[in-house]
Amino acid sequence: MGTYRYWQHFLALESDFAATSRYVEFSDRNFATFSIEYAKLLLAIGSEVDVLCKIICENIEGTAKRGNIDDYRACITAHTHIAIEEVLVRRYNLAFKPWDAWSHSKNPAWWQSYNNVKHQRNAHFDKANFENCANAISGLFVAVLYCHKAEKSIESLEPYPVLL
To answer: What is the structure's pLDDT at 43?
Structure first.
């Protein structure tokens, strides 16, 4: 079973994100657009990223500390090139580098927004926006691929994503 279950979860989240294009045009001019739907997606995507980062760390360095995002960053960046990965949304001419902050020993802004929305939604609801969701789903996409590689899986990751 392996990575396949994570791939299926990613595809479901990506499909939900893609459906928001019916209401919010996928454009950098709409990056700040926030909504309940984006809050729901950001929380679900962030949670799945957390799960996958733990698995990646476990597979690439079994003894690595993996209690939080800082631990994931230390482990994953020491063994991969995740920080330079770019995800394209060709249909909308958008590109995201969701893990770029890790190349500067920082955590992604979308991850901080996920935590702010999770723990203090009343003060940070506006962080549940298109830009953070787009970066988060891109980050999840990259994490699933790295998990697939770390697990040395030979499963085919199909069907293909709708957007990415």
So the answer is: 98
Q: How far is CA 19 from CA 25, 70, 98, 162, in A?
A: 11, 32, 21, 10
SS3 for 56-67, per residue? HHHHHCCCCCCC
What's the mean per-residue pLDDT of the chain?
94
DSSP-derived letter for residue 77 is: H
Nearest CA-CA partner of 26 in 100, 147, 129: 129
Q: What is the pLDDT of residues 126-153, one digit of tens each?
A: 999 999 999 999 999 999 999 998 888 7
Residue where the block lists tokens 């090139």: 81
155 in helix, strand or coil? coil
Other beta carbons less than 10 A from residue 35's beta carbon: 16
CA-atom Rg of the chain in angstroms: 15
**Separation of alpha carbons 45 and 123, rounded Å:** 20
The position carrying tokens 């020491």 is 78
Which of the 8 DSSP states describes residue 81? Answer: -
